[in-house]
Design brief:
Order of helices and strands: EEEEEEHEEEHE
Low-confidence stretches: 1-5, 112-118
Helix content: 10-25%
Strand order of the largest sheet: 9-1-6-5-4-8-7-3-2-10
Largest sheet: 10 strands, mixed
Strand content: over 45%
Shape: globular
Length: 139
């Protein structure tokens, strides 16, 4: 059994949620080291989502846009797009679990810095985004 003090809770200050014409959502966040293992996105239906990326790292996304909330709550799966510098590091599908309250257990760390990827526009175009919501705190 893994000890809780090894779990890192990293806050993602800025993230973008996009929707394509099929109603599919993708979330752009900063890249983290290592591959995700059985990731899941918990959403409280209010303003907070928690990406449980693996057993040792979770990403807190506060400030989910009001218009985004309904669409996210109805989603079964979202695409997570991790950006590292100017490169899309990885893209993966994550099931969405609607929860009443998000349980934060672990050690919180400061927010990561945002790096905009030049290739992000290519991802937006290939995803077929028709809506883009900026969420969290502005930089």
């Amino acid at each position: 059994m893994e000890n809780q003090y090894y779990t890192l809770m990293e806050k993602q200050d800025f993230f973008q949620v996009i929707e394509n014409k099929y109603g599919e959502l993708a979330i752009f966040i900063d890249a983290r080291d290592g591959e995700p293992v059985e990731p899941v996105l918990e959403f409280d239906g209010k303003s907070t989502a928690l990406l449980r990326r693996d057993s040792r790292r979770s990403i807190i996304m506060d400030g989910v846009d009001e218009e985004t909330r309904g669409v996210l709550a109805e989603s079964e799966v979202v695409m997570i797009i991790e950006l590292k510098g100017e490169v899309v590091e990885r893209v993966y599908a994550v099931p969405v679990e609607n929860v009443e309250d998000i349980v934060f257990n672990g050690r919180r760390t400061r927010a990561d810095e945002l790096f905009r990827a030049k290739s992000k526009e290519e991802v937006l175009k290939s995803f077929g985004a028709i809506k883009v919501w900026s969420n969290g705190t502005e930089k």
